[in-house]
TrEMBL record:
Keywords: Coiled coil. Pfam families: Com_YlbF. Residues 27-54 form a coiled coil. It comes from Candidatus Caccosoma faecigallinarum. This is YlbF family regulator. Signal peptide: none annotated. The keyword Translocase does not apply.
Amino acid sequence: MKQSAHNLNQKIKDLEEVKQYLFYKKVIEEDAEIQKLLAKIKQTQDQMQEALKQKQMSNYQNLKKELAQYRFIFEKHPLLQNYLQYKKDVEQILQEVISVLTWE
């Protein structure tokens, strides 16, 4: 049984979708531009929470607009689009595997 699980694991890792997903994940983790953008998004989210705590609604609304701009740039980045597509593909493959394992 354990050997079968290892074989299945290896077959999944050998799929082109999984290889591409892992490739883009690594590229994103190492891309300075994307990491800088992620840091700005996180910082803006933290500032939004602080603005809410301080009941500074006008500041909160400005930060919300700023966050929307960062997210738009983030979501349109070609590396991220590829990463998200392969992530979706891998999730679908894993869901299919789970479905088969559940019914057999």
